Amino acid sequence: MSLSSIQPLSRFFLLLSLGELFFHAHCQQSSCRSSSSHEELKTWTPDEHKNAQQPPSSSTQSPAPKEQTNSLSPLIAITWGQKCAICHGLYGRGDTPQGRIMGAAVLTDKNWQEKTSDKSIKETIRHGKGKMPPFDLPDHVVEELVQHIRSLPQ
C-alpha cells in the first residue's frame, strides 16, 4: 500500500501520528524532559541581536511595568533568567508561551502575593510543585529569589 493510495484525510492523520511518534521518541532520548535542561540555556543580551532596538512582540509578553527596578544582583538576574523566566516571564506574569502551557503562577497577582508565604515559595523553588521542577540552589539564592518575587509590581 503506497502513501498516495490512502485518502487525503487519512494520509494527514497518518503523517500527523508519525510526526508525533518521532517527536516523543526524540524527547525520550534527549534532555528535553530533564529539569536541568534549562541550565544549558544561555541568556542573550541585546548586543547579540541584530534587531535589538525592536520592542518585544505583544503576543509573547506584556511590556515592562513602569515601576520595574534594576536592583537585582547579577547572580539573581542570571538565575531568574535561566530558571524562572522561561515560564514566569521577565516580570513574573507567567505570560510566556511556556508559562501559558504549564499554567505558571502569576507572581504579580495581589491575591497570590497575599496568600502565599515566603516559606511556601522557598519550598516550591526547592522541591517543585505541580508542573514546576525542583531547583537545587544555595539557600542565599533562594532567599534572594523570594525577595525578588515579593518586589515584583502588582
TrEMBL record:
<dbReference type="GO" id="GO:0046872">
    <property type="term" value="F:metal ion binding"/>
</dbReference>
<keyword id="KW-0479">Metal-binding</keyword>
<keyword id="KW-0349">Heme</keyword>
<dbReference type="GO" id="GO:0020037">
    <property type="term" value="F:heme binding"/>
</dbReference>
<dbReference type="InterPro" id="IPR036909">
    <property type="entry name" value="Cyt_c-like_dom_sf"/>
</dbReference>
<dbReference type="GO" id="GO:0009055">
    <property type="term" value="F:electron transfer activity"/>
</dbReference>
<feature type="domain" description="Cytochrome c">
    <location>
        <begin position="79"/>
        <end position="149"/>
    </location>
</feature>
<protein>
    <recommendedName>
        <fullName>Cytochrome c domain-containing protein</fullName>
    </recommendedName>
</protein>
<feature type="region of interest" description="Disordered">
    <location>
        <begin position="38"/>
        <end position="72"/>
    </location>
</feature>
<feature type="compositionally biased region" description="Low complexity">
    <location>
        <begin position="52"/>
        <end position="65"/>
    </location>
</feature>
<keyword id="KW-0408">Iron</keyword>
<dbReference type="InterPro" id="IPR009056">
    <property type="entry name" value="Cyt_c-like_dom"/>
</dbReference>
<feature type="compositionally biased region" description="Basic and acidic residues">
    <location>
        <begin position="38"/>
        <end position="51"/>
    </location>
</feature>
<dbReference type="Pfam" id="PF13442">
    <property type="entry name" value="Cytochrome_CBB3"/>
</dbReference>
